[in-house]
Amino acid sequence: MRAALAVLLCALSSVQAGCYVTYDPVEDLSFREFPDSASAVIAILEEAGHARVYAVGEYHPRPVPNAPKSPMTRFTTEIMELMLPRARHLVIETWIDDGCAATSAVSREVAATTGRSPSATKQLEALVMKSAKLRLQTHALPMTCIEHGALLDAMGRVDFLRLLELVTEKLGRTARSLVESDRAVIVYGGALHNDLYPAWPLESLSYAHQLSADLGGGVIEVDLVVPEVVAPMPMVRREGWFPLLGRTAPDRVLLWERGPDSYVIILPAKDLEARKVALPIAAL
Predict the structure, then answer these.
(1) Which of 13, 44, 151, 205 is 20 to 30 A off residue 194, Cα-Cα?
(2) pLDDT surpassing 60 at residue 177
(3) What are phi and psi of 211, to 5 degrees?
(4) For the stretch 143-172, what's the b/e string if a residue is b when 16 or more beta carbons lie within 10 angstroms of its beta carbon?
């Protein structure tokens, strides 16, 4: 609104030749700023009240030199404990390698295609160990050899759309089976699957959207955004929170609400480099 007013005043100015306006879309966004992730999460938990499912999503990081703290590491060390004693169960978007040839083939191709680094396995192990220490009951996705085999085409390649649909189904079904009246379920996975307001035609890839409808509400979406992870991703340019990357810094956390019960936490940046992808040209 302020940007539009500035443009109007500029147009009406009698000295138009020297009138320039830099539009910053952040001026049209409503968001909150916190000193750390814990403060932002506490604010969400207090607003959410009695939740039945905390649907936490990350943008999967790819291995890069001098990588920042991953969203999973931040969730493990800074966020998960804050959700206790509200939650009793933790569902993780992963499956146990049961030794099937199909399972191993799917795991190898997924890792190769997504560029998942070896450190991701260690981060997952740290998450499981921390959840056990907190006495959270941790659940991986139950996958049979037959289900993994069905993901491979005649050439032995993974059908990734079918994989995404299967993961979505398993996340929703597992969470639904664990929902209790007195304790919530934490589900940790990709930011695609936890959308309460999925864009068309991605509704079928969100367990949270359908689960919220089935439960009559009580599903809280929390997206964890690491600036350095998402900065190179073209797909995030369409996100409503994208302009906020231009305000990221090592000493702040930004909180944006997509809609009721849907939150995006933009975590601290390592430095001021990642913010450049979202700054107005005149500010570079």
Answers:
(1) 151
(2) yes
(3) -65, -40
(4) beeebbeebbeeeeebeeeebbebbbbbbb
pTM summary value: 0.89
What 3-state class would DSSP assign to 258?
strand
Residue 278 near residue 242, CB atoms below 8 Å: yes
In angstroms, the CA 281 to CA 24 distance is 10
pLDDT by residue (tens digit) across 18-74?
A: 566 678 889 999 999 999 999 999 999 999 988 999 999 999 998 777 889 999 999
Per-residue CA distances from 118 to 112, 114, 125, 163 (Å)? 11, 12, 12, 21
Beta-bridged to residue 259, according to DSSP, are 262
Residue 230 CB burial class (10 angstroms; 0-12, 13-18, ≥19): buried
Band of residue 14 on the pLDDT scale cut at 50, 70, 90? very low
More confident residue, 269 or 114: 269
**The one-letter amino acid at 38:** A
